Amino acid sequence: MVNITIYKKGLGIINGLFYVTSITHTFKIFIYTITFLILLLTSFYPRKYIKNNINNLINITVNTKDIILENIVTKEKVNKEEKIQNEINLLDMKIIKQTKIIDHSYHSLILNKKAEQFTIIEYTLIILLVIIGAMFLLSTCDFVSLFICIELQSYGLYILCALYKNSELSTSAALTYFLLGGLASCFILLGSALMYSNSANFNIDGLQIINSLSSNNLNNLDHIVWYTPNYISYSLLVLAVGLLFKISAAPFHIWSPDVYDNIPTIVTTFVALIPKISILIFMLELVHYSSNIMINTDFNWTSCLLLSSLFSLIIGTVLGLTQSRIKRLFAYSTISHLGFILLALSINSIESNQSFLFYLIQYTVTNLNAFIILLTMGYGLFFYVSDNIEYDKLQDKNNSPIQLINQIKGYQNLNPMLALSFSITLFSFVGIPPLIGFFAKQMVLSSALDKGYVFLVLVAILTSVIAAVYYLGIIRKMYFDTHEYILIKWGQYNINNTILSSHLSITISIITNLILLFIIVPQEFLNLSNIMTLIVYTSN
After folding, report:
1. Which neighbouring-strand residues pair with 13?
2. Whole-model pTM above 0.70?
């Protein structure tokens, strides 16, 4: 059992550059857990044969070529001679590899294409750098340390995206991510510089002091010649633009769909989750300590968060309707859900902060489950072939086995339990009761109504209904369409002898049951978010 020490007022370290509270402790453990689950995807072979007859393996290997060639000849092809020759060449290579992995010491045969990250010794080091940056970013209390931590996190992500050197798509996506991420960093640095030029302050504690003066209506700073109250809000507005760039919130989302789609799916899982957690938790502290800075002006920088929330809800929903590639669809889905998160963040009340923390936790877990299932579906299709020319033309299929929504048509007939888990996850995205996603959206909308944001609530409800179209469209394809795959038989053995590795099935089962059965034991998550919210409001 994890024991978390509660710091009522927070504990400053390294001369006040960082601080430690129960919130930072909790989300550090949360990020460690998410990272552990993501690393499980690359730590084991995803599929295997169980207890095959070792005496028949050589015969299976020798006869496999003739059996598969017989299946190939019977299929209709555009250019039979050329395609059959290509299949023969590929099959020769596969048989050579197959014979090499026969181990007479064990009665099981592992079937897997070795993932590229196993041969890259820097892979774990880069992951470590990203996690270190995220850990320090959660605890930062200074704008200089903010810039350093967010760059440490971002540089690791840039390298991680370009780590698959043989993938042209991955390299181009990493370059796009690097250029636009550098532009976002310029906004963060500019906002910090403007803050210091006006108030000679880099620390969030200074914002808390100004916030306290503002809340007490002590507008007695007019005699200070160099101080301009508007500068604080303008500086934070520029800083917020850079942070919204980093989390791909609209209208600063332009890089997100291309990067998500082109990098390997395992890396997409990491990029889509870890940076958003650390940046959004920092923004929670920033909004809490500075949302009331309106000395001598009616302008509030948190208005940009409401505007970004509106754009994210609309753009993420409408553009998601036109997508045929599943990771681009998930990118727009993330943008849409960021609209709910930013709506709760900008309100800055006890109820809204509780809904913000709860929504962030549940969406991270649900999104992780969606990506794990997407990868597992691709692993399950390893033993199938298809005549669909569009599937054959896909690039980087080893690192991203599922790229098109049509690739999961009829998947219920191939693996009913995996299709059921994916359906439950998508229903949670929609917000269907009694799944966990419904309660998260209900909490955000309730806190927004309490503050009088009726228009944004109506937009959020409408976009949730529209977004259900593409989520339910995926489910319809899995259950009501016919798949286009043909099973490759390996001698007298077939796919029924093959199972997914236990680390994948257990992880998917636990997360899916958490999404499905949340209504039975909801108090743990609700109490956690409630306690952390109260600590924020009692630490002033």
Report:
1. 18
2. yes
